[in-house]
Every structure is written in C-alpha cells, then in structure tokens.
Write a structure and sequence with these properties.
Blueprint lengths: L19 H14 L7 H5 L5 H12 L10 H14 L3 H6 L6 H18 L18 H13 L8 H29 L1 H5 L11 H11 L10 H16 L37 H4 L51 H10 L10 H8 L2 H4 L3
Helix pairs in contact: 7-8, 8-11, 8-14
The structure holds a DNA duplex (21 and 21 nucleotides).
Main location: nucleus
Pfam families: Myb_DNA-binding (PF00249)
Subcellular location: Nucleus
Length: about 375
DNA sequence: AACCGAAGCAACCGCCCACGA
DNA sequence: ATCGTGGGCGGTTGCTTCGGT
C-alpha cells in the first residue's frame, strides 16, 4: 500500500509553473541552510508549495551543477548504451552523465532518441532490430480501400492509385525489415563472422546471413530465429510486391485485382494478418487467408483477375568459389536481393558507422518506383 | 494573420523502498 | 514485526512553442 501523496490535505498549495520569485526563495533558502527536510522546507522558506514540488524544482532545474542545453553526440551515445544495459533506470543513467538529471534524460529519450532508434529500425526497448510490424497498420485499410474500389463504391481516385499507395507502403514496410536485417548482420558481425573464418569460401554478408540463418544459437543472434523470421517476412513481402504491374492495361476494366502470395494464397488485409508478434504470424508456409480480405469494410471484392506472380522459394548462396553454394537471389524479388547486391554489403561491414552508411544508401528502396 | 497539429519539456502523480521509532 | 515518514523513481499530463497551411 503506497503512502498518500505528500501534498494531500495541504489546501491552497500552489501547483504549476514556478515563478522567478519562487525560484529565488527556494535557491536562497537552500544556499543558506540546505534543504533539510523537504516537507518542512516550504514553510521555512516562505513558499506556498509542497515539499515534493520544491525537491523536484531544485533537483531538476535550480541545482547549480545542472548542465543545460542540447545533449552532444557523446552524451547521446552514452545514454543509448546505458539504456541498452539498464533500461528505463533514468536515475542510474543520470549518475553517468554529470550535470544531467534523470528527468531531462528521460524527456530527451522519449522525445528524441526513441524516435531516432525507431527511424533506424531499432526497437528502443530491446535495442534490437524491430520485429514488430506495427508500421503495417495501414495495410489492411489500403487493401480494404482497394476492395471498395473494385466493388465500385470508391468514386474518385482510380483504384490504380490506391494500389500504388498500397505498394509504396509495402515498400516502406519492407524497408524497415531490411533495416532490421542489416542491423542484425552488421551489429553481430563479430559473432557471425567467427564460424565462417577459414571456410575458404565467400566471407561476405551472405555468409554472415547463412551463419545466422543456420546458426540456431551458434554465433547467431541471441534471440535465435530472428533472422529466420525476418527472411520469412521478407518472403511474404516479396510475394506482396509481386503483384502484377499496376497499369490499367494489366488489369481488367472493372478494377478487380488480386494479390497472390507464394503458393497462390490471396493476400488479405484482416486484423489477423499482421497481428501477433514475429514469427507466429509469418512463419514459413503460413498462408494468408483470402477470407480476411477487406477487413473492416466487409465486402471488399478483390478477385483474381490480374494473374499471379509467385516468387520462387528463397535459397541461399554461399557466395564463393568453393562452396557449392546455393543461390540467394530469387529472380522475381529484385527489390530486395538486387538491392543487397548493388549495395555491396561487404564494403560496409567492419567499418566505422558502416551500417548507418549502408542504410542511407538503402534509402532508395523506400523511394524507388515500382 | 490566424489557425491547427506536432513536438518539446517542466511539472505532477502515484507507487515503492529505506529507515527509524 | 509493524507503522509512519521522507525521499526517490518512472510514467504521465498538460502547457508552451514551433512549424506548416
């Protein structure tokens, strides 16, 4: 049972922003006598505030050793590093950043660093590549919209425009997954590279990828299976992106269309499609039910009128000369695999900030017209 | 110039823990 | 062992500022 708030029963105690006069009273009193008992301080200092408010104001704002202004790069890095170790232990983190308060660090994290990590495809809670697909929340609606157009209720913009929007969003989603994948590869280079050392074959990123894929904990990611999940998701997206070319010529005039997954399943937009966490929703071989098409709009009338393009199964390439390797380049998944090749991932591994550089170069994936 | 939404941040709230009586 | 108090913590709120339209 928690104790009652310190200000309970203190009728008339002021709340809200502090005035310069109040600040001066507080600073003058503490400078002269120290804070002593925070509960008694307000009365002694002539403040109509509760002790807790005084303590907060002092520790977070008025303390003379407080360092104000923007966080520099070193501080940012340190916060991110400490957060990856300590989590939301802001006070503990603050002890490593002289002059910074826990509140300031917490605010900075929530307003800047968190978004920064998210933008880099890193989960700010786990500090690992994102595995959630929340960014796909709009896909069901887009699919539903496409369905409504196909059923004739969407006067106005053409269904082609809607589907292009859908595809662009799918690209964005894919881009996030790629970021996560590359992050996994590059940040685990040392772990991933070790098993490959001396194998004589290719030592490139695809070997790292294979080490991770096949690693199952041996040199792979701590969480195991992450990359497998990612690759499985990518396969699913490759299927989604293998929609027929979005020109009116390729579809029949009533606007009906279909999105077909490997194996011929229709791509649906129901709540269950992208729900759940990670692999359960995207395990290899998972079918996406056509019954989920349309989602909330109900009668989305997406039909298989445009033909299908099912990418071949993902196989892998040991990349080199000796290997007897498998091939990592499904022919009909150019967005992903051609992208990886053209970026020459090896050049970016083991270099300072290499993965950041890489992600920047990969940005074209998010803007390339299909 | 006015409006509006997003972002930033100071301050508050409620809970928990340590400690002494 | 129990209770009351002081202090600290993380999460949340709401006001202010900023930028876009």
């Amino acid at each position: 049972m928690g104790r009652s708030p310190c200000c309970d029963g203190e009728a008339g105690v002021k709340k809200g922003p502090w005035t310069p006069e109040e600040d001066k009273l507080l600073v003058d009193y503490i400078s002269e006598k120290g804070h002593g008992s925070w509960r008694r301080l307000p009365k002694l200092a002539g403040l109509n505030r509760c002790g807790k408010s005084c303590r907060l104001r002092w520790t977070n704002y008025l303390r003379p050793d407080i360092k104000r202004g923007r966080f520099d790069d070193d501080e940012e890095k340190l916060i991110i590093h400490l957060h990856s170790i300590l989590g939301n232990k802001w006070s503990s983190i603050a002890t490593k950043l002289p002059g910074r308060t826990d509140n300031e660090i917490k605010n900075y994290w929530n307003t800047h660093l968190r978004k920064k990590l998210l933008g880099m495809g890193i989960d700010p809670v786990t500090h690992r590549p994102r595995t959630d697909l929340s960014l796909l929340a709009g896909l069901p609606a887009l699919l539903a919209a496409a369905g409504s157009f196909s059923s004739g209720s969407g006067a106005g913009a053409s269904w082609v425009e809607n589907m292009n929007a859908l595809r662009l969003q799918a690209d964005a989603a894919k881009f996030q997954l790629l970021q996560g994948l590359v992050r996994a590869l590059t940040t685990n280079t040392s772990a991933a590279a070790a098993p490959m050392a001396g194998n004589g074959g290719g030592s490139g990123v695809q070997d790292h990828l294979m080490a991770l894929l096949g690693g199952g904990g041996n040199g792979g990611l701590a969480g195991g299976g992450f990359v497998e999940q990612q690759m499985s998701m990518l396969q699913q997206y490759d299927g989604l992106l293998s929609l027929p070319a979005l020109t009116s010529a390729t579809c029949n005039t009533n606007g009906a269309m279909a999105a077909t997954m490997p194996g011929g399943q229709l791509v649906g937009g129901g709540a269950g499609m992208f729900g759940g966490s990670g692999g359960d929703s995207f395990g290899a071989g998972d079918g996406l039910s056509s019954t989920e098409l349309g989602g909330a709009s109900g009668s989305s009338n997406i039909t298989a009128a445009c033909g299908t393009t099912a990418p071949p199964p993902l196989v892998c390439n040991n990349g080199g000369s000796g290997g007897g390797g498998e091939e990592t380049t499904p022919a009909s998944s150019p967005m992903f695999f051609d992208g990886l090749e053209s970026l020459n991932l090896d050049d970016h591994l083991n270099t300072d900030g290499g993965w950041k550089d890489l992600l920047e170069q990969m940005s074209w994936l998010n803007s390339t017209e299909l």
